Write a sequence for this structure.
Protein backbone atom coordinates (compact mmCIF):
# COMPACT_ATOMS: atom_id res chain seq x y z
CA UNK A 1 0.00 0.00 0.00
CA UNK A 2 1.27 3.41 -0.94
CA UNK A 3 1.27 6.82 0.59
CA UNK A 4 0.64 9.40 -2.09
CA UNK A 5 4.16 10.16 -3.24
CA UNK A 6 8.22 8.54 -2.24
CA UNK A 7 11.89 4.31 1.71
CA UNK A 8 12.55 3.28 5.79
CA UNK A 9 12.48 1.72 9.44
CA UNK A 10 10.52 4.22 11.50
CA UNK A 11 11.83 6.12 14.50
CA UNK A 12 9.73 9.01 15.71
CA UNK A 13 11.97 10.65 18.30
CA UNK A 14 10.78 10.62 21.92
CA UNK A 15 7.47 9.09 20.95
CA UNK A 16 9.16 6.03 19.43
CA UNK A 17 7.88 2.99 21.25
CA UNK A 18 7.27 -0.48 19.89
CA UNK A 19 4.19 -2.11 21.43
CA UNK A 20 4.97 -4.68 24.11
CA UNK A 21 4.32 -8.37 23.70
CA UNK A 22 1.41 -8.10 26.16
CA UNK A 23 -0.40 -5.51 24.02
CA UNK A 24 -3.11 -7.29 22.08
CA UNK A 25 -4.39 -6.10 18.72
CA UNK A 26 -8.16 -5.83 18.95
CA UNK A 27 -9.24 -3.59 16.06
CA UNK A 28 -8.06 -3.31 12.48
CA UNK A 29 -8.84 0.41 12.52
CA UNK A 30 -6.06 0.95 15.07
CA UNK A 31 -3.41 -0.29 12.65
CA UNK A 32 -1.44 2.09 10.44
CA UNK A 33 -3.34 3.37 7.44
CA UNK A 34 -1.43 4.09 4.19
CA UNK A 35 -4.37 6.23 3.09
CA UNK A 36 -4.33 8.56 6.08
CA UNK A 37 -0.56 8.61 6.58
CA UNK A 38 1.23 11.40 4.74
CA UNK A 39 4.65 12.90 4.13
CA UNK A 40 5.89 16.32 3.17
CA UNK A 41 9.14 17.76 1.84
CA UNK A 42 10.86 20.03 4.35
CA UNK A 43 11.33 23.57 2.95
CA UNK A 44 10.75 22.50 -0.63
CA UNK A 45 12.68 24.55 -3.19
CA UNK A 46 12.15 24.90 -6.93
CA UNK A 47 15.56 23.47 -7.68
CA UNK A 48 18.53 21.82 -5.97
CA UNK A 49 22.18 21.26 -6.79
CA UNK A 50 23.73 17.83 -7.28
CA UNK A 51 25.14 16.72 -3.91
CA UNK A 52 22.51 18.51 -1.84
CA UNK A 53 20.09 16.62 0.35
CA UNK A 54 16.33 16.71 0.45
CA UNK A 55 14.39 15.94 3.65
CA UNK A 56 10.88 14.63 4.19
CA UNK A 57 8.78 14.12 7.31
CA UNK A 58 6.40 11.15 7.48
CA UNK A 59 3.28 11.40 9.65
CA UNK A 60 1.77 8.01 10.42
CA UNK A 61 -1.91 7.72 11.30
CA UNK A 62 -4.31 4.84 11.87
CA UNK A 63 -7.60 4.24 10.04
CA UNK A 64 -9.35 6.57 12.49
CA UNK A 65 -6.88 9.34 11.51
CA UNK A 66 -5.23 9.23 14.95
CA UNK A 67 -1.47 9.73 15.19
CA UNK A 68 0.55 6.54 15.70
CA UNK A 69 2.80 6.61 18.77
CA UNK A 70 5.08 3.70 17.98
CA UNK A 71 7.21 2.54 15.08
CA UNK A 72 6.14 1.36 11.67
CA UNK A 73 8.33 0.17 8.81
CA UNK A 74 8.31 2.54 5.84
CA UNK A 75 10.49 2.64 2.76
CA UNK A 76 11.37 5.86 0.96
CA UNK A 77 13.21 6.40 -2.31
CA UNK A 78 14.24 9.18 -4.61
CA UNK A 79 14.05 8.22 -8.26
CA UNK A 80 14.11 9.32 -11.87
CA UNK A 81 12.08 7.09 -14.19
CA UNK A 82 13.92 8.23 -17.35
CA UNK A 83 17.42 7.77 -15.93
CA UNK A 84 16.29 4.59 -14.14
CA UNK A 85 18.18 5.53 -10.97
CA UNK A 86 17.08 5.76 -7.35
CA UNK A 87 18.32 6.42 -3.81
CA UNK A 88 16.80 4.64 -0.77
CA UNK A 89 16.62 5.54 2.91
CA UNK A 90 14.81 4.28 5.99
CA UNK A 91 13.57 6.54 8.77
CA UNK A 92 10.51 8.62 9.73
CA UNK A 93 12.57 11.70 9.16
CA UNK A 94 13.90 10.93 5.68
CA UNK A 95 17.03 12.52 4.22
CA UNK A 96 17.87 11.64 0.62
CA UNK A 97 21.02 12.57 -1.31
CA UNK A 98 20.49 14.18 -4.74
CA UNK A 99 23.19 12.49 -6.89
CA UNK A 100 22.12 13.38 -10.43
CA UNK A 101 21.06 16.36 -12.55
CA UNK A 102 17.49 16.40 -13.82
CA UNK A 103 14.07 15.75 -12.38
CA UNK A 104 13.57 13.65 -9.25
CA UNK A 105 10.53 12.26 -7.47
CA UNK A 106 10.11 11.09 -3.88
CA UNK A 107 8.09 7.95 -3.15
CA UNK A 108 7.08 6.48 0.24
CA UNK A 109 5.71 3.00 0.83
CA UNK A 110 4.29 1.56 4.05
CA UNK A 111 6.11 -1.77 4.10
CA UNK A 112 4.85 -3.08 7.46
CA UNK A 113 2.67 -1.41 10.04
CA UNK A 114 3.83 -1.60 13.65
CA UNK A 115 1.00 -4.07 14.23
CA UNK A 116 2.39 -6.41 11.58
CA UNK A 117 5.89 -6.07 13.05
CA UNK A 118 4.46 -7.00 16.45
CA UNK A 119 2.71 -10.10 15.07
CA UNK A 120 5.80 -11.24 13.13
CA UNK A 121 7.97 -10.86 16.24
CA UNK A 122 5.40 -12.74 18.35
CA UNK A 123 5.47 -15.81 16.12
CA UNK A 124 9.18 -15.59 15.35
CA UNK A 125 9.93 -15.86 19.08
CA UNK A 126 7.37 -18.63 19.66
CA UNK A 127 7.60 -22.37 19.08
CA UNK A 128 4.36 -22.47 17.13
CA UNK A 129 4.49 -25.32 14.55
CA UNK A 130 3.96 -23.92 11.03
CA UNK A 131 4.25 -27.25 9.25
CA UNK A 132 3.20 -30.74 10.23
CA UNK A 133 4.65 -33.96 8.83
CA UNK A 134 3.60 -37.57 8.44
CA UNK A 135 5.87 -40.47 9.34
CA UNK A 136 5.47 -43.57 7.21
CA UNK A 137 6.25 -46.88 8.93
CA UNK A 138 6.33 -50.25 7.26
CA UNK A 139 7.20 -53.72 8.51
CA UNK A 140 6.31 -57.43 8.51
CA UNK A 141 2.98 -58.59 9.89
CA UNK A 142 1.55 -62.00 10.53
CA UNK A 143 1.34 -64.75 7.93
CA UNK A 144 3.75 -63.09 5.46
CA UNK A 145 1.79 -59.83 5.33
CA UNK A 146 3.09 -56.28 5.40
CA UNK A 147 1.88 -53.59 7.79
CA UNK A 148 1.87 -49.87 6.96
CA UNK A 149 1.16 -47.09 9.44
CA UNK A 150 1.17 -43.30 9.12
CA UNK A 151 1.58 -41.13 12.22
CA UNK A 152 2.25 -37.45 12.98
CA UNK A 153 5.90 -36.32 13.12
CA UNK A 154 7.70 -33.03 13.70
CA UNK A 155 10.84 -31.45 15.06
CA UNK A 156 11.18 -32.00 18.79
CA UNK A 157 10.66 -28.90 20.91
CA UNK A 158 8.99 -27.91 24.14
CA UNK A 159 5.99 -25.65 24.30
CA UNK A 160 2.72 -25.18 22.47
CA UNK A 161 2.06 -27.59 19.64
CA UNK A 162 4.74 -30.12 20.60
CA UNK A 163 4.02 -33.83 20.46
CA UNK A 164 3.27 -35.65 23.67
CA UNK A 165 6.29 -36.49 25.81
CA UNK A 166 7.31 -39.78 27.38
CA UNK A 167 7.11 -43.32 26.05
CA UNK A 168 4.44 -42.37 23.52
CA UNK A 169 6.95 -41.18 20.90
CA UNK A 170 9.79 -42.35 18.74
CA UNK A 171 12.78 -40.02 18.70
CA UNK A 172 15.48 -39.66 16.07
CA UNK A 173 18.61 -37.50 16.08
CA UNK A 174 20.69 -36.21 13.18
CA UNK A 175 24.29 -36.97 14.12
CA UNK A 176 25.73 -34.10 12.05
CA UNK A 177 23.38 -31.29 13.10
CA UNK A 178 22.07 -32.57 16.43
CA UNK A 179 18.50 -31.92 15.27
CA UNK A 180 15.96 -34.10 17.05
CA UNK A 181 12.93 -35.50 15.25
CA UNK A 182 9.88 -36.94 16.97
CA UNK A 183 7.08 -39.19 15.75
CA UNK A 184 4.07 -40.55 17.54
CA UNK A 185 4.69 -44.23 18.29
CA UNK A 186 2.95 -46.55 15.78
CA UNK A 187 0.37 -48.92 17.25
CA UNK A 188 1.75 -52.10 15.69
CA UNK A 189 5.28 -51.34 14.46
CA UNK A 190 8.48 -50.44 16.27
CA UNK A 191 10.33 -47.13 15.99
CA UNK A 192 13.03 -48.57 13.71
CA UNK A 193 10.46 -49.25 10.98
CA UNK A 194 10.31 -45.59 9.85
CA UNK A 195 10.69 -45.60 6.06
CA UNK A 196 10.22 -41.93 5.10
CA UNK A 197 8.22 -38.84 5.96
CA UNK A 198 5.97 -36.52 3.96
CA UNK A 199 4.53 -33.04 4.37
CA UNK A 200 1.21 -32.91 6.19
CA UNK A 201 -0.94 -29.92 7.03
CA UNK A 202 0.24 -26.31 6.97
CA UNK A 203 -1.06 -24.31 9.92
CA UNK A 204 -1.75 -20.58 9.90
CA UNK A 205 -0.91 -19.20 13.37
CA UNK A 206 -2.84 -15.95 12.87
CA UNK A 207 -5.99 -15.50 14.91
CA UNK A 208 -9.19 -13.95 13.41
CA UNK A 209 -8.18 -10.46 14.58
CA UNK A 210 -4.67 -10.68 13.11
CA UNK A 211 -5.54 -12.11 9.68
CA UNK A 212 -7.23 -8.95 8.29
CA UNK A 213 -4.12 -6.87 9.08
CA UNK A 214 -2.12 -8.94 6.57
CA UNK A 215 -4.78 -8.63 3.88
CA UNK A 216 -5.05 -4.82 3.97
Amino acid sequence: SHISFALCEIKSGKDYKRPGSDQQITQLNQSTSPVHSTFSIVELKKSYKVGEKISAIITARDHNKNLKRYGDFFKAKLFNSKLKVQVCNGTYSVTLLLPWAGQAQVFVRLEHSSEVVQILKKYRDSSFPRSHYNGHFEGPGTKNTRISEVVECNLKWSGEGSLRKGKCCCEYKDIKTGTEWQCERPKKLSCDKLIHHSLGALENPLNPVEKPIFTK
User: Anything to note?
Assistant: The CA atoms of residues 165 and 200 lie 21 Å apart. The radius of gyration is 26 Å.
